[in-house]
Amino acid sequence: MEDPVIVLSRQELDTLLSTLIERDEKLLFKKDLKPTKNDVPVDLYVFSGHLEALRSEELDGMLMEAIEDLGYEAKDEDEAWEIVKAFYLPRKCTLMRVEEDEYIIGDELARRLGLLKEAP
């Protein structure tokens, strides 16, 4: 069975991000909280800090550094991304595609954000 892939348009991702705040290094839905002065609005940059890895035209995912941290080497970013996916996807993570960009998001976070169904 093939691993699930979350597919969102840029607009869908932007809409999701607009419903979130970061508080105490956690992503939370605004509607569930009273605002505080420590709340951080969530944009793509803030969101990226909660991802396991990413390959994006807009953000530098530092792929070559990421695979070195994992103890691997790659000749280019294409190979590096394949290595990163092979490492994370079997480890309770899911691939999320937003137009040409790809992100690896932890399954628990994806479920909390309503991007994955609850595990049976």
Brief rundown of the structure:
The chain has 120 residues and is an alpha+beta fold.
Largest sheet: 4 strands, mixed
Low-confidence stretches: none
Q: Let me know the number of strands.
A: 7
How many DSSP H or I helices? 5
Strand share of the residues?
15-25%
Computed Rg: 15 Å
Oligomer description: single chain
Order of helices and strands: EHEEEHEHHEEH
Strand order of the biggest β-sheet: 1-6-7-5
Q: How much helicity do the residues have? A: 25-40%
- The structure class reads alpha+beta
Give the rounded overall mean pLDDT.
92
Determine the N-to-C terminus distance: 16 Å
Which shape, going by the Cα principal axes?
A: globular
Strand and helix map with partners:
Blueprint: E1 5-8, H1 10-18, E2 20-23, E3 26-29, E4 40-41, H2 44-48, E5 53-55, H3 63-69, H4 77-88, E6 93-98, E7 101-106, H5 107-112
Helix pairs in contact: 3-4
